[in-house]
Amino acid sequence: MFFLQELERTITLHPSFFGPRTKEYLTTRLLEDVEGTCTGQFYIVVVLDTFDISEGRVVPGSGVAEYTLRYRAVVCRPFKGETVDAIVTSVNRMGVFADVGPLPVFVSNHLIPSDIKWDENATPAQYTDNGDQVIEKGTHLRIKLIGTRSDVNNMFAIGSVKEDFLGTL
Length: 169
What we know:
By secondary structure, the protein is mostly beta strands. It is about 10% helix and about 50% strand. It has 1 helix and 13 strands, in the order βαββββββββββββ. The strands form 3 sheets. A 5-stranded mixed beta barrel has the order 5-6-7-12-11. Strands 1, 2, 3 and 4 form a 4-stranded antiparallel beta sheet that branches. The radius of gyration is 22 Å and the shape is elongated.
């Protein structure tokens, strides 16, 4: 799920930022641009350090300079079949929506054990077995990821709580 990865990013810098603090500004700009973003393959959780900042290259015709920064970051990459802990954000008749860090996960009502039923009369909305298992907003769940889907800047997952040792914590 979490990995240490070396990445690279090109940042353009306006001439008004040239000077003795250029490297400090580039590092700050890198943190603002990439921390908390999704590349489509993984989420960049935090940038640990920049270990290589190239010499600036002036772009002809515009006057801005391009710098290539190489950095180390902690990234979050979910895998199919992985078991994760999540917090429920929404419950409805179709299933449960939960968050695993930055990753939204949907658990269909078909992937919830058959003894846990939708209770339409309950407030707040919930799935329950009329015993100790209640799935409502804020509940901590252990989920097995069935599959993941990636867009350009987003990732989504489908999960299940229908196997042993999965469900409410």
